[in-house]
Amino acid sequence: MSSHLDLRDVSVSFNGFKALNSLNMSVCKGELRCLIGPNGAGKTTALDIICGKVKPSAGIVSFDGTALQDLEEYEIARAGVGRKFQVPSVFRELSVSDNLEVARARRTSVFGNLRWSIGNAGRDDIERLAELVGLTEQLDRPAAYLSHGQTQWLEIGMLVAQDAELILMDEPTAGMTAQETRKTAELFARLKGKHTLIVVEHDMGFVKAIGDIISVMHMGQMLAEGTAAEVEAHPEVRRAYLGSGGISHA
Amino acid sequence: MDQLIEQIVTGLSIGSILLLVALGLSIIYGSMGIINLAHGEFVMLGAYAAWVFHTYLGLGLLASLVPIFLVVAAFGWVIERYVLSLLNNRPLDTILATWGVGIMLQQAVRLMVGSELRYVQLPPALADSMDVFGIPISSYRVFLFVVSIALFGATWLLMNRTTVGMKLRAIIQDRSVAASFGINAKRVYALTFAYGAGLAGLAGALVSPLKSVSPDMGTGYVVDAFMVVVLGGVQSLAGTVASAFILGELSGGIAFLQNDTVAKTIVLLAIVVLIRFRPEGLFTARVRA
Amino acid sequence: MPSNISNSSGLQRLIAQLAPLLIVSALVFALPVLLNNDFLLNKVARYLVLGILTISLGLSWGFGGILNLGQAMSFGLGSYAMAMALKLKTVPVHTGASGLPDFMVWNNVQHLPWFWEPFRSLSFAIAAGLLVPALVAAGLGWFMFRGRVTGVYVSIITLATMVVINLVIIDQQSYTGGFNGITDLAQLELFGVAFDAYGRATYYLVAGCVLLSLLIAFAFTKSRAGLIVQAIRDHESRVRYFGYDVALYQIFVFALSAAIAGLAGMLYTVVMEFASPTFLGVQLSLSVVVWCAVGGRQSLVGAFLGAVLVAGMQGALSESAAFLETWTLVMGALFVLVVLFLPKGLAGLAQATCRWVAQRRQAASGAVGRGVSQTEGST
Questions:
Q1: What's the start-to-end Cα distance of chain B, in Å?
Q2: Terminal-residue alpha carbon distance, chain A
Q3: Is the predicted pLDDT of residue B10 greater than 80, yes or no?
């Protein structure tokens, strides 16, 4: 079985601090992979490497056979990678519908976009998306007026609009109520299969609800992989979460 | 040989004036992220203050330095408190606001004392020249050099060895964390801006005997000083010193070899290229890989 | 630009957004009927041209987030392109050699320099007046935005570049007329119409260009590319992760803005009857920023009106030196107040007022009692 996304011996360091230390990970097409680990384990950095925000100092990132590590961010996005950030990142001065319209990046060239966007098809698409993330009432309001939870939903909606093959989610449920979290889990279940998802999460309940395979990171390396039960039983994972594994695994 | 030394001394003299003006700008930009386009007007205010103290109060230049510092610093304090502190998260708008303030200051001075050139007397004690390596050099220029280095030293001590400096550095790192430890960021910012303005005022007073004093004299200084800051790196006081003297020697040298237009063009193009390829300045280490 | 406007609510919204633009343009066209004074009409034409220049800055600054402190560079380049062509159309008066511009004769230039040659053709000059600023801007934009220069640094680079070009123009006196600029020009003649600076034809030419610039800028801001440019202004890096090459969009809006500024520059030469290095000076460049901020940087009509009103006021007061000096002080204060309290300028104030009135009316009609009305105000 050939894997969809492959990270091979990826390392990166900031000021001598090794945020990733020979990280290896592979994800299959249509899979929903949860990425967990203690604070500072390098989960967000791993996503940064895949989407091109940070360039690795060593190692290879391949996506369907394309080497991503040498591409610009926009080229990686065009190759089919979408990213949701930990701090919700939307266009605050634009309306919700304009946010979704920007995310619907079917055409990306400047001259291809010198056309007006008042057509029916686009609007229908956007209304459907807004309904999906529960922002129908807010379509014409600037994103700056949304609550924190709504902003999270908007960014998730933007990722659905982008329709990327591989979707990277950094703590999508932060700041959401229990009910909203449940709704997110349902949405992810629907996305899985059609899209490949990598979700970084702290909420173990959420992770158990959505994840098939869980990857545990620690000190910039992959510590363990498996189902929820397997991972929880793993002795090194237990030690890492208790905080005593720091020295022995350096 | 003599000519070379003379050239070097001229460069040092230009450099010390640049340093005097750039020091305040550098502190304000480096710590508050504000590009203070009114900085030239603070220089101008300092020069006019020297003229006013001399003409109306009969005070000599040296005696009026401390009051000038205080007066211009007070101006800076007011401007920070009532204008800039309202623009916390809008860095581009602070350029516009300080520029507007600069216009107002310039115009107010023009309306009050007119736009004719004013002259300030050289302090009599420093009016003659002294021998350096067998070459006669104006004592006042030597004095300028010494003062600029002394002010740099004082500023360094203030930033690195006092509680106010420590608080300021904490705020630069993270304003909200500093505030949660009880540091009054507003007050520290106002004081920083006032100090930077005061330094500019001192610079204006000190150059006033060398150049004629006019309402628009500050415009040229702010551009040159800004280049010093960019070249030196925003967070680095030592870089500011190095770049002030490098630029001083360079502009002295180029102006000596070529005409003024070529000199200005070269300096401007150098700045453009520098910003594009090393926005963090020449004298700071790259922080992130 | 293909537009498939079949959605009626979209069409209504479009008309509502176009209304201020069309009303202002209609007023501009109607003015000569009310103002029967060729001298004043020439002055108004001048302010309208400055209005076009300010629209161009609004496009790059208000919509693209690119604060170009060297916007007058494009304006000046356009102005010189037109002046060079009109200079070569003059019947030589002082010249000894074959039709050489007078200042070249004074500077002992023997032959027309190669870069002057093509300006014998007016069509070339007009094309150059648009394309040279656009290409220079595209080149500078490529240099800056490919290196991800942002914010304040863009402002410094644009300002420094303009000063360099200004210095070169002043320095190369024998080819550019130096400090004095290019004076004593022929009248512009297009399609058999002569454009006297003080004539109606010139006024209507300027008015037509106002409408054209507003429409082009409007069409761009309403296009998908315009939307993406605004997204870049809000959150540059986020746009990259949707697959857009941010630098290309920035370069495009930067160059489009420069072309419109170049158009304004060409018109300015026609209206003022000369070109001067002050047209690409720091003073004008910064004034444009003030006009744009006062009028409203995120509103094309606002930016235009800001320039016409403020520059017009300044012109009216410039008869008396004392008035002008006080005015500059007032202007500085006004500018600081706008920056502090009206970041969207007068246009933002007007929009807020409209919204407030609409909400009041809705609240009132709701109180009369037809049940719960839709409280979402339209924007």
A1: 45
A2: 32
A3: no
ipTM value: 0.87
* Cross-chain Cβ contact C167/B86 below 8 Å: no
Q: Looking at residue B27, what is its pLDDT? A: 85
What are the chain C neighbours of B272 within 8 Å (beta carbons)? Answer: 157, 160-161
Measure the N-to-C terminal CA separation of chain C; round to a whole number of Å.
Answer: 25
Residue B153 contacts C where some CB pair is shorter than 8 Å: no
Q: How far apart are CA A208 and CA A195, in angstroms?
A: 19
* Touching subunits for chain C (3+ Cβ pairs under 8 A): A, B
Closest chain A residue to B289, measured at CA: A14
Residue B284 has pLDDT above 60, yes or no: no
CATH number at residue B189: 1.10.3470
Q: Are C56 and C261 a contacting pair, CB within 8 Å?
A: yes
Residue the block writes with tokens 């990166």: A12
Contact C242 A77 (CB under 8 A): yes
User: Would you put residue A163 in left (φ > 0), alpha (ψ -120 to 50) or beta?
Assistant: left
B269 touches chain C (CB under 8 A): yes
- Chains with 3+ CB–CB pairs under 8 A to B are A, C
Cα B21 to Cα A24, B43, B148, B207, B229: the distances in Å are 54, 7, 9, 10, 10
Q: Is B160 helix (H, G, I), strand (E, B) or coil?
A: helix
Contacts of B70 (CB under 8 A, 6+ apart): B198
Q: Residue B285 gets which letter from DSSP?
A: -
pLDDT < 70 positions in chain C: 1-10, 91-98, 320-321, 366-379
The backbone torsions φ and ψ at residue A153, rounded to the nearest 5 degrees and listed phi first, read -65, -40
For B272, the closest of C152, C157, C289 (CB atoms) is C157
What stretches of B124-193 adopt beta strand conformation (E)?
A: 129-132, 135-138
The mean predicted confidence, pLDDT, of chain C is 85
Residue C208 Cα distances to C56, C67, C80, C212, C264, angstroms = 16, 27, 21, 6, 12
- B287 contact A CB<8A: yes
User: What are the residue ranges spanned by the domains of chain A?
Assistant: 1-80+164-250, 91-163
C226, C63 contact by CB (below 8 A): yes
pTM summary value:
0.86
pLDDT in the model for residue C47: 95
* Domain A1-80+164-250 class, CATH top level: alpha beta
For chain C, state the CA radius of gyration. 22
Q: Buried b vs exposed e over C177-203: b needs ≥16 C-beta within 10 Å?
A: bbeebbbebebbeeeeeebebbbeebb
Q: Which two tokens stand for residue B113?
A: 């004392």
Residue B73's domain comprises 2-277
B43 located within any domain: yes
Query: Number of structural domains, chain B?
Result: 1
CA B159 to the chain's CA centroid:
16
- Full DSSP string of C20-45: HHHHHHHHHHHHHHH---HHHHHHHH
Of C157, C167, C293, the CB nearest to B261: C167
By DSSP bridging, strand A58-63 and strand A66-67 are antiparallel
Residues of A in contact with C377 (CB under 8 A): none
Rounded Cα–Cα distance for residues C77 and C280 (Å): 8
Contact A57 B287 (CB under 8 A): no
Q: Is B165 a member of any domain? A: yes
Which chain A positions have a beta carbon within 8 Å of C10's beta carbon?
118, 123
Question: Which positions in chain C touch B103 (Cβ < 8 Å)?
Answer: 328-329, 331-332, 335
Pick B111's closest partner by Cβ from C144, C293, C325: C325
Chain B residues within an 8 Å CB radius of A15: 287-289
Closest Cβ opposite residue B93 in set C149, C286, C343: C343
Amino acid, single-letter form, for residue C156? I
